[in-house]
Amino acid sequence: MRPDVVCFGESMAQLLPADGEPLRHATRFALTTAGAESNVARALVQLGTTASWVSLVGDDALGARLLDDLAAAGVDVSLTRRGPGRTGFFVKDPHPGGSTVTYYRDGSAASRLGRADVDRALSARPRHLHLSGVTPALSASCRDAVGYALGRDVVTSFDVNHRPALWPDTGEAATVLKGLVRRADVVFTGLDEAAALWGTTTPEQVRELFPEPAVVVVKNGGTDATSFGPDGVTTEPALPVDVVEPVGAGDAFAAGWLHGMLTGLPHPARLRLGHLLAAAALTSLSDHFPRPPADLVRAAVAPTSGS
Question: S-S: 300 plus which of 39, 88, 199, 272, CB 3.0-4.6 Å?
């Protein structure tokens, strides 16, 4: 089956306190799947968009668990390979203001992703290819693979997803990610990460820095999000929400926006659907969340004045 979207990049096993307590006091833990690209794939499937996740996982129990978990969620994992080495994992110490994570991913199977894996991903002939700035931080071959993917004959989206822990040199991160952004068709970035990387302070400055992508979406935390594209500039306010855990909200937003694009929704509705999924992610301890109720989805995509 030809998927609507292929999401290409690393995923890991995630260990987190099951009750949301700080790690040092927790006595019960949950083992889940986490990773920017597989998070997007899972959320897309919840909305009815077919999605594949393509990567490498280790020939170990964690790798098998990741594949089983994503397949059970409806994500096609048939093109993900298992190979020598281990599957990466990380431990999360939850906090509403920003969780602390400790990674155990050095030398993981996913760090060996390369051009052949991109070719395998695109053999599915997807309508769309989604990538993030996490993968190019993992190794030289991963960085080359993402650049190669952004040059292929397929519509692409790239979520900057800057993770400072993966980029010891901020200057290198700024240079590498800037080059990748300029090669994508659709770009997602947070205003805060754009400021840290490139010194931009407004959504308009981000667009001025990156005129090449057809669409640039700038998320301003819990305030709003603005898209710049062929149809002009659109801004939609974020939804009020009591934050339980912030990690994963950006992936959820990207999934909502991409689903809106692939189903032909206008830009305001794409942003509103992105905000709705981001709000759902913000109320979940893990990177995953139940599908928002159908009435909320319908309200998010319903035409409004100016839509």
Answer: 272
Residue with tokens 């051009």: 115
Catalytic residue among 242, 251, 287, 295: 251
Calculate the average pLDDT of the chain.
91
What confidence score (pLDDT) does residue 306 get?
53
Reading the block at residue 236, the tokens are 């939609």
Identify the CA nearest to 150 among candidates 142, 161, 139, 140: 142
Question: What is d(CA 257, CA 255) in angstroms, rounded to the nearest whole number?
Answer: 5
CATH number of 5-11+35-77+112-301: 3.40.1190.20
Rg of the chain in Å (alpha carbons): 18
The share of the chain scoring above pLDDT 70, in percent, equals: 95
Q: What is the DSSP string of 140-181?
A: HHHHHHHHHHTTSSSEEEEE----GGG-S-HHHHHHHHHHHH
- Cβ(297)–Cβ(47) below 8 Å: yes
